Amino acid sequence: MVQSDHQRILGNPKFQELVRTRSGFAWTLAAAMLAIYLGFILLVAFAPGLMAVKVGGGVTSLGIVLGLAVIVSAFLLTGIYVQRANSRFDDLTRDLTKEIV
User: What's the structural domain count of the chain?
Assistant: First the structure.
């Protein structure tokens, strides 16, 4: 009985849509974060002069600003994922639950 329920859920088109949609979106955001981080690391490695440029009249360098931008982008991408999870993914999960219960 349990195995047939498991197979029924795995074979459900709404479940497959949920998994496909969620995985695709998660991989997209992961690739975006990887590109942001890799870009920052490449700038550190190959453009240290650019990263050392002072911003404004103070002692803060462009590297510090870009490093903070990497951290802020991680929070923003997390927020985007949470917003999507609380709207689209929850709707898909709710529809799936109604169908299988």
Answer: 1
Tens of pLDDT, residues 7-59: 888 888 889 999 999 999 999 999 999 999 999 999 999 999 999 999 988 89
Domain enclosing residue 34, as ranges: 2-100
- Could you tell me the pTM of the whole model? 0.84
CA dist., res. 53 & res. 88, Å (int): 43
What pLDDT is attached to residue 78? Answer: 97
Give whole-number Cα distances, 36 to 29, 46, 66, in Å: 11, 15, 10
CA angle 35, 31, 26 (to 5 degrees): 150
Question: Quick one: angle between helices 2-11 and 90-100, nearest 10?
Answer: 130
**96: nearest Cα among 23, 12, 25:** 12
The span from the CA of 91 to the CA of 73, in Å, is 26
